[in-house]
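Notebook B, p. 112. Complex prediction, attempt 2.
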Amino acid sequence: MALKMIDSKLLDESEKIMKMLSNPVRFQMLNLLEQKKMSVSELTNVLDLEQSAVSHQLALLREYQLVSATREGKSNYYQLDDPHILDVINETLEHADHVLRGKKHGE
Amino acid sequence: MALKMIDSKLLDESEKIMKMLSNPVRFQMLNLLEQKKMSVSELTNVLDLEQSAVSHQLALLREYQLVSATREGKSNYYQLDDPHILDVINETLEHADHVLRGKKHGE
DNA sequence: CTTTCATATGTAATATATTTCATATGAATA
DNA sequence: TATTCATATGAAATATATTACATATGAAAG
């Protein structure tokens, strides 16, 4: 049978998703925002980063429509905008766990 | 309830996996190697890249134990070494497809 | 209406990833 | 055993991502 290639649009979109998830700050952010909406300063505290770094990463997540923000008073609260991404995250965590367990026996 | 953070080992491992999949060449390679083992020159042709670029990417996939190689005559055949990664790839493709379909209606 | 607080953004500095080019290696063949 | 073929690898060139610093913005409080 002939080889099936992933077509370029699907590959592009996959690349975007993977790029977003390949940074641990963003990965953790999405994991946190799954649990509840959080303001920038809350995220800054929990993640122990500079405010600017947090805002920049959130800007990327917004650009890719993975999160959205709503203003409440002075704060800007972020929330997960695409729950479907959680399936990818969870599958990744499962895989990561599987790899880590594997390392304890083999090699 | 308190916030659940992804612990650092799991986060590190997830980062590695996502980094590997965030490059479209590697993503496509893994997709191809799922279907059958292929030599470097076959991959070079199918992916339409320089041989050196292909070898470098394969070296990374080897390093992360996602593929392994076996020599046959002059050629070096690569095969998928971690079928579990396919779950992540497939989940990603599903998500990418979902996003692309979404774009056709909304926005 | 000016000061403060929370956040965003531009730009430069730095780090990381990818590609390219040149060359090395190692098995097969002449 | 010299040559060729397939692949790997080192190092430089280039591209991309991340962080840090300075400053802008906009809502709320005084």
